[in-house]
Amino acid sequence: MADVSEVLMSVLSTIRVPKPGDRVHKDECALSFSSPESEGGLYVCMNSFLGFESQYVDRHHARTGQRAYFHITRTRKAKKEDDNNSGSGHPPKKKPTRLAIGIEGGFDVEQELYEEDVKVVILPDRQEVTSDDLATMPDVVRERVSLSMAGIMAADSVSHALQVQQWDGEVRQESRHAPELKQLDNGVKIPPSGWRCEVCDLQENIWMNLTDGKVLCGRRYFDGSGGNNHALLHFQQTGFPIAVKLGTITPDGGDVYSYDEDDMVLDSKLPEHLAHFGINMMTMEKTERTMTELEIAVNQRVGEWEVIQESGTTLRPLFGPGLTGMKNLGNSCYLNSVMQVLFTVPDFQKKYVSNMEKIIDEAPSDPTQDFKTQVAKLGYGLLSGDYSKPAPDPGDENGASEPRGDQIGIAPRMFKALIGRGHPEFSTNRQQDAQEFLLHFINMVERNCRSGSNPSEAFRFLVEERIVCQQSQKAKYTQRVDYIVQLPVQMDQATNTEELQEAERRREEGDTSAPTVRAQIPFTACMAALSEPEILTDFWSSAVQSKTTATKTTRFASFPDHLVIQIKKFTFGLDWVPKKLDVSIDVPDTLDLSALRATGQQPGEELLPEVAPPPLMTPDVEVKGILGFHGNEEDDSLYSPLLSPVLDDSTVSQLCEMGFPMEACRKAVYYTGNTGIDAAMNWIMGHMDDPDFAAPLVMPGCSSGAGTTPTESLSEEHLATIVSMGFSRDQATKALRATSNVLDRAVDWIFSHLDDLESMDVSEGGRSAAESEGGREPPPPGPRVKDGAGKYELFAFISHMGTSTMCGHYVCHIKKDQQWVIFNDQKVCASEKPPKDLGYLYFYRRVGE
C-alpha cells in the first residue's frame, strides 16, 4: 500500500475537486455509449472529469499523461413486484394521473435502482484505491482524494442535466383576461347538465364562453374526433377570450382555456364567472375527461407499438448491426428518425464510422464538444450492433410477454446538446420539424467538412430556373444549390372527392359516427405541380424595360446520388393556425426523373440583358470619386470605404417592412436604379436563392462592404475559430473584415461566398493551396455536385403523426436487405405493412445505369 500512497502523492497535483460549473461526465463515455452499467464500468478523469470506458481510458492516459481516474461500476438491483405491476412489463406500474414527468402522479422517468462500487484507479498499472485504503494514507493525500471522490459523486452529471427530469404540464398561469373579464348581462342561464353545442348539437367536448354564455363544441382533433371548432370560431368572430369546459367543473375548479393566449389558464374568479350564468360551482360534479386526462391518454397511446403505425400486426423485434434503437430524450424522435436514415447512406458511414479510429486519435482535449467525434460516436453506436440488445424487463421474469422490440439502445445526449447548442429550437426539448433538422444537420456538416470529403454532397444537387419573357421571348437562366425536393400537395386532385364531401357533410350535421376519410392524392399530380411552368405576372423585363408576363420552369441541372423528397403536408389555415393535411399519396418504389433534366440555353435563344443600374448620385453631386479617408483634394479617384450609395430610403423601408433583409433591400434598390418598389421587388424575387442574397452591398471602387474592419483589429480568437473549420487564415480575415469582426456573421458570410473563395482554395489543416506542398489543381468553379442518371429507388421514409410539426411523433422505415424495418425510438422491428402512402420525407438512392 506504501507504493500506492507514493504514487498518489506524486500525482496529487493532477487531482481536482469539482467546482460549480465543471462538467462532470460520470454517466457516459465521451467516445462511446458505455456507462457505469456497462461491462468494465466507467473511468472518470480526476482532472478533466471526462468519462471513458475501459478501452479508451488507456488512450487518454497515453495521450495526456493523466494517471488518476475515478472508477464507477453499477449493478442493477432486482425489483420487487408490487400490486400495481401487471407482470408483463408493458404498461406503467402506476397509471399517470398528472401531465408531468418525474413528479408524483406523473409519467415515470427511468430511475433504476443500482448498487454502486467506486474506487480510484492509477494507470498504467491499474492500481486500485478504495475509501478504506485512503484511511491509512497521509492526511494531505487522504483529504484531497476524498474530496475529489465525494465531489464527483455529488456532482450533477452532464447527461443528467441534459435529460428531462422534471416537467409539469399542469402548471398553469393566471389568464390576463380573468381579473377584469366583462360578462354580458344577457339573461343566459346554463343548466347543470344536458349540454349541447348550439350550432351542431354535439354533446361531447362542450365549452361555455365566459363572456356571453355561448355553449359550443371544442376543436376537432387530427383524427377527425373531438368537436367541430365552433367555440374557436365564436372567439374569432367576437374576440371573447375565455371558455370553460362543461363537465370538468368541480368545487376545486375546472378546465379554462384562453383562446387569445392559446393555452390552458387559471381563472381566480371562476366561481364568480360561473355564478353569472347560474352555475353553482360547489354543487357541480365531473362528468367529462379533463384536457389533462385526454393528453395523458394520448401520451400513453403514443408509446404503444400497434397504435403508432402498424396496428393489428404482431411485429418481430430485430437486433444486430445497423438495427440499434435510440432513446427518446423528450420529443427527440425527429432527431432519432433523421439520424437513423442518414447512417444508412454510404457517404456518412465512410466519413465517420469507417474513420472512427482516426477521428478518435485526432480528437481534441474535450471530445464531447467536437462535432466530428460526436457524429462518429453516434454512427458507430448505430451500426456496430454493440447496443442492439433486448432491454432488461424486471417485470417479466417468466418471459411470458409478447416481444415488443425494446432495446438497450443508445441515448444521444451529447450529440443532441452539441448539435442544438445556440439554436433557438433544437437546443430545447420541444418537438421539431424533421425536415428543418435535416437541413440544420447538413449545414453543420458543410461547415465542418471544408477540408476532406463531404458526405452531404450525396444529397446536393443543382436546380436550373428558366424564366422566359412572354413579350420578347428572351430567357434568363439561374442555378441554385438544393438538398430537398419539396412537393406541394394538390388537394384539388384528390381521387375520392365525393367520399370527402360526404364525410364533411355528416360531420357538419353533427354525426359522430361519420368515418374519417383521407384524401387520396396521385403522386403524379404532385410531380406535375413541380415540373409544369409557373406563370409570373408583373414580371419586370429588362428586354422591354417594363412589366410583362413571364413563365418560370424548374429543372434538375444535376441528379444527386441520394434524393430527398418532402411532401408539404404542413400548411396554414385561413386563420394562420398551422395545420396538417391528412392525405394519402401513392409514392412509388422507383422513380425516373430523366425527363426533368435541365437543357440550358437553347440554340438561337436570346438571353435577357443584364441591366446596368443608372448613376445613383443626386443631381448636384458630380459623378466622380468622393473624398474619404483615402482621398485628398488633388486626388479624388479613390472611394471611401465608408461610402454608402444614395438610395431611395422609402423603397428600402417598404421592402424591409415586408420582412426581407436590409442588405438585400439595399441591393434591390441599387441594382434596379431607384426605379421604384415594383422593380426592386422583382429583383428580390429573382435573387432570393442567391448565396449572397443578404450579404452587404459592395460599391464599385470598394474592396468590401461598408463597415469593414482593418486587419490589425481582428480578433485572434475569431480567426482561430474559422481556421479550425478548415479555412485558411486569409479567408478567415476576409470574412471578418467584411462583417465588422462579428464571428456569427463572418461564418455565414464565408459560406455565402464559397465561389469567390475557391480561388484561394483550402487544403487539410486550413492552409491555402499555395502553402500546401506541391500545390494542386484548383477545383472547377461553382459548388461541387455529383451527377448521374435520374433513376431512383425508395430506401427509407420518415412518417409523422400529429396535428403539426410542433407536436406528435416521428418514426422511420428503412429498407435493409430487401426487408422493411420500422425504427420507433428504442423499438426496432420487421415491418409488415410499411405505410409508404403516409410519409413526410422520402429518401431515394440512384439505381445503376
Automatic annotation (TrEMBL):
Active site, renumbered: 333, 809
GO molecular function: cysteine-type deubiquitinase activity; zinc ion binding
Domain UBA as annotated: residue spans: 646-687, 713-753
SMART domains found in the cross-reference section: UBA, ZnF_UBP
Enzyme Commission number(s) from the entry: 3.4.19.12
Record field: compositional bias (Low complexity): 763-772
Pfam families xrefs: UBA (PF00627), UCH (PF00443), zf-UBP (PF02148), zf-UBP_var (PF17807)
Key word Transcription present: no
Listed Gene3D superfamilies: Cysteine proteinases, DNA helicase RuvA subunit, C-terminal domain, Zinc/RING finger domain, C3HC4 (zinc finger)
GO BP terms in the entry: protein deubiquitination; proteolysis
UBP-type domain ranges (all copies): 173-281
Residues covered by the USP domain: 324-847
Protein keywords: Hydrolase, Metal-binding, Protease, Repeat, Thiol protease, Ubl conjugation pathway, Zinc, Zinc-finger
Name of the top EC class for this enzyme: hydrolase
UniProt-annotated stretches for the region Disordered: 73-98, 386-407, 762-787
Residues that coordinate or bind substrate: 207, 219-222, 257, 259, 262
Binding site for Zn(2+): 197, 200, 217, 230
InterPro entries: Papain-like_cys_pep_sf, Peptidase_C19_UCH, Ub_carboxyl-term_hydrolase, UBA, UBA-like_sf, Ubiquitinyl_hydrolase, UBP13_Znf-UBP_var, USP
Catalytic activity: Thiol-dependent hydrolysis of ester, thioester, amide, peptide and isopeptide bonds formed by the C-terminal Gly of ubiquitin (a 76-residue protein attached to proteins as an intracellular targeting signal)
PANTHER family in UniProt: UBIQUITIN CARBOXYL-TERMINAL HYDROLASE (PTHR21646), UBIQUITIN CARBOXYL-TERMINAL HYDROLASE 14 (PTHR21646:SF10)
Family: Belongs to the peptidase C19 family.
Name of protein: Ubiquitin carboxyl-terminal hydrolase
